[in-house]
Amino acid sequence: MSTEKTLILVKPDGVRRQLVGEVISRIEKKGYVITAMRMMQADRALLERHYAEHQGKPFFEPLVEFMMSGPVVAIVAEGNRVIEGFRSLAGATDPTVAAPGTIRGDLARDQGTKVVQNIVHGSDSPESAAREIEIFFGK
Ligand code: DAT
Ligand code: MG
Fold first, then answer.
1. Average pLDDT over residues 43-67
2. How far apart are CA 9 and CA 24, in angstroms?
3. CB-based contact 93:47 (threshold 8 Å)
4. Residues 97-132: pLDDT tens digits?
5. Angle between the 20-30 and 82-90 helix axes, to the nearest 10 degrees?
6. Which of 45, 46, 117, 133 has the most CB atoms around it within 10 Å of its CB?
7. Is 71 exposed, middle or buried (0-12, 13-18, 19+ CB in 10 A)?
8. Which domains does the chain have, with CATH numbers?
């Protein structure tokens, strides 16, 4: 049986706050298996591909600038229903209302910035996961 894969990013706010280990720990404690990982400085071209669905929205440029503001850690995690499962671990997009117990609910808050800073990214569908893993890790 082939298991599902997702792309997780520890965003620059998470790296700056030294939360990489905390995020990895939560992924592993849940039982998902990390099968690839790299720390990198994402450039504009890569981020415009990654966030293509948000092109034209008011927070798009702030989002790209924020994601270029420092290194990110890209992670491939595997397991049955890992896409849905990691989104659940991450919590709601808005950290103010993200449930306590989630990564965003426990570790992030509103910073008054034009873009929401919320520690992690997780793919939202199998199609997104395949596309995003190729963007960060190649074929
Ligand atoms: P998610 O990361 O939960 O999948 P998304 O794909 O809708 O959320 O948006 C990507 C990121 O952009 C999100 O993590 C934080 C930021 N963002 C989303 N909606 C926003 C908004 N209305 N205002 C400011 N930033 C926003
Ligand atoms: Mg998204």
1. 98
2. 10
3. no
4. 999 999 999 999 999 999 999 999 999 999 999 999
5. 130
6. 117
7. middle
8. 3-137 (3.30.70.141)
| Ligand 1 lined by 59 (C-beta under 6 Å) | yes
- Of 44, 54, 22, 5, nearest to 120 by C-alpha is 22
- How many CB atoms sit inside 10 A of residue 112's CB? 6
**How much distance in Å is there from the Cα of 29 to the middle of ligand 1?**
26
Distance from residue 121's CA to the centre of ligand 2 (Å): 7
Distance CA 99, CA 37 (A): 27
What does DSSP assign to residue 20? H
Our mutation pick for probing the ligand 1 site, out of 88, 116, 124, 128, counting the most ligand atoms within 8 A of Cβ, is 116
Q: At residue 85, does pLDDT exceed 80?
A: yes
Q: Which of 19, 6, 37 is nearest to 106 (CA)?
A: 19
First to last CA, the chain: 21
